[in-house]
Amino acid sequence: MGLRDPVQTEPGQEREQGAGKRGGMVLPAVMILTGIVSVQFGAGLAAKLFGQIPPAAVTGLRLWTSALAMVVISGRGFTRSVRDLRRRKAFGDAAIAASFGVSLGVMNFSIYQSFARIPLGVAVTIEFLGPLAVAVAGSRHRRDVGWVVLAATGVVLLTQGGHGHLDLAGVLWAGLAATCWAAYIVLSQATGRRFPGSAGLAIAMVVSAVIITPPALIAGGGAMFAPAVLATGAAIGILSSVIPYRLELESLRRMPMRLFGVWMSMEPAVAALIGLILLGQHLNVVEWLAICCVMVACAGAARY
Fold first, then answer.
1. CA–CA dist 60, 73 (Å, integer)
2. How far apart are the first and last CA of the chain?
3. Percent helix, strand and coil across the chain, each to the nearest 5
4. SS3 label, residue 269
5. Which of 53, 92, 218, 245 has the fewest Cβ atoms within 10 angstroms?
6. Phi, psi of 73, rounded to the nearest 5 degrees
7. What is the structure's pLDDT at 10?
8. Using one digit for the tens of pLDDT, what is the confidence trace for 203-241?
């Protein structure tokens, strides 16, 4: 994606505008970093909660909170969109929104199953292969093959060719989350074209909360309704969905998508640091190198 040709200015004006533009990037960059920390801190809280209730139950608490919050944020737009679907009998639009919700639900379920088995930073690194695949698939540049090779190198280093110490089930769950994230991106765009504002996302959130309810209740039982557990689950939902959604939306209004993608590529490193600080998950040098490989690949694919 290229930038538009810059407006011609006098040399002095160009320096002033350049400085202003650089200064204008500070706020959105801070927003993105805050959103990343919020998401990964929520993930760390979720992993700690696994000691009290199973991952499926934690997923339910997160999605219930997120769905409720998104319906409130969407307001009348959510109600109008649902009524409009029924009035128009727009089954195609409903199917897109429902598929979006299914991908969202399975993605969250899968990544929490992965968090329960492998370190946070490793799981998020593998999950990031989903957005990378979408970025590369939509590109016509030969250099993007290099980013794929670099990301694949990172995955091989992480898993040590299948002979490492990582739990295989955890790696596979993270891989499923990556696949669902790729589907989420594609379906998010399709949903956004069919619904106004955040109504489509709110509908998808409700669908994801509904489909996750049976496994959540079966796994968690009455333990997930203890006041302290409910409060922690609500905090996870707010930290992992509501806060980053708003911050990312505002940052995208202030910076190009390509720069947004570059900043977002920092997420695996932040996840690894949160895992270290909050969960005591120490990674070795090879694992850090692998995370860096995937981060550079994601940043490169987003940048070009």
1. 20
2. 7
3. 85, 0, 15
4. helix
5. 92
6. -65, -40
7. 38
8. 899 999 999 999 999 999 999 999 999 999 999 999 998
Q: Mean pLDDT for each 10-residue chunk of the chain (304 residues)?
A: 32 40 72 92 95 96 93 84 82 88 95 95 90 76 78 79 73 94 86 81 92 96 94 94 82 75 84 91 88 85 67
Report the pLDDT value the prediction gives residue 18, as an integer from 0 to 100: 42
Measured torsion, CA atoms of residues 229, 232, 236, 239, in degrees rounded to the nearest 10? 170
CB 107 within 8 A of CB 177: yes
Candidates 91, 261, 98, 99; CA nearest to 180 is: 99
| Residue 58 burial (10 A CB sphere; 0-12, 13-18, 19+) | buried
Q: Which two tokens stand for residue 100?
A: 């979006």
Q: What is the full DSSP assignment across 10-28?
A: -HHHHHHHHHHHHHHTHHH
| Contact yes or no for 216/57 (Cβ under 8 A) | yes
Task: Identify whether the C-beta of residue 196 lies closer than 8 Å to the C-beta of residue 81.
Answer: yes
Return d(Cα 102, Cα 97) in angstroms, integer.
9
Token pair, residue 186, equals 């594609």
Task: Please name the residues in contact with 228: beta carbons below 8 A apart, sequence gap of 6 or more.
Answer: none
Handedness of CA 40, 138, 198, 113 (dihedral sign): negative
Number of residues in the chain: 304
> Residue 109's closest CA among 218, 28, 260, 32?
218
Return the closest-CA partner of residue 250 out of 31, 77, 60. 31
Compute the C-alpha angle 188/192/198, nearest 5°: 100
In the block, residue with structure tokens 């992965």: 114
The region, left, alpha or beta by phi > 0 then psi within -120 to 50, assigned to residue 100 is: alpha
